[in-house]
Design a protein that fits this description.
Blueprint (H helix, E strand, L loop, with lengths): L11 H15 L9 H8 L3 H19 L9 H20 L4 H15 L2 H11 L5 H30 L1 H22 L11 H14 L1 H28 L8 H5 L5 H6 L1 H11 L1 H22 L4 H27 L6 H52 L8
Length: about 400
Amino acid sequence: MSGAAPGHGFTLKARLGLTLIAGGAVANIYYNQPLLALLVAEFGDRAAVLVPTASLVGYGLGILCLVPIGDSLPRRGLILAQMLGLAVALLAAALSPSLGSLAAASLAIGFLASAAQQAVPFAAELAPDATRGRMVGQVMTGLLSGILLARTASGFVGAQYGWRAVFLAASAVALIIAGVAAATLPRTAQTRPLRYRALMVSILHLVRTQPALRRASLCQGLLFASFNAFWTTLALLVEAPPFDLTAAGAGLFGVIGVVGAFIAPGSGRYTDRRGARPVVVAGALFVVAAFMVLWAGGAVSLVAVGLGVLLIDIGLNGALIANQTRVYALVPGARGRVNTVLFTVMFVFGAIGAFAGSQAFLMAGWPGVCAVGLVLSGAGLLVALLERGTPKAT
């Protein structure tokens, strides 16, 4: 656990540093997605499955296995170590002679890229109680922007210079971000070291004893499941008649997501003032409204699809910031483990949503996807509505 008092050391320099670290770290698990055609051309069809899967599995393992350590050891040192290791893993990916070695490097990249999830609880730890939501929102803007910009940058560099150049450049960026961490992050004291086994066992204790954590995780998991049901099938919709877009055209819908990223600080600021519940309810309502729009006009109108993307991103990200702010306030010395619970549940529900959306599209087409999205987001809204009103971010 860090011994810094809330607000101590959380200067503008530290906030900007954490924002850059969150975005720069998480970007690494998405660099491979625009490069899949190039990877398939060199390594065969299996590359399209193995490489992105390995990076995402690694990221999930990093959230589960590495992020809790931040509650026992100073997060500054952990972030530095992960970014330096990430630079090595990215270099190994760039030099990979075979698909097996690239998949192994991708697993390591995802595992170490979980430094992004060290940055967010670090911000919650350093921020004063009265502005925690806004500070978490600012760092999450960096994380969400990193996801968006990663695909754009990777696609451009890969098309011009090849896929290996992307990983080489990313390795250099990871080293720069390690330097940013060293220059901007405050040193915090280690006050209560815990053995790793005790850390992991305590995660189960948190789940059992913190009903607000369970509710927030369930609500956000359901919303994330609906989000994945949509994004997993969007390309199937817009690349078929009547739209007949290319893969690049389908990818442009992701640019709309930048709006959702930049509403994060506003969501956090409102959470600080009014509490998490109204923000979560509003976010869930946005997602429900998105699927209504998509069901009514998504199959015939790109404008309706674009509006649906906008509503989903605003709703999901707004609810996420509020739920993060809420759970970080529960047990101040366990923010890393709380973060692990929230995002592990999100990943599990996200996988369920992706599977359900794909199956619905195959069985019932676009209306089936929208029905799945409405059920999942509606369930998330119900979880938020059934919660009793609580003051502030608790």
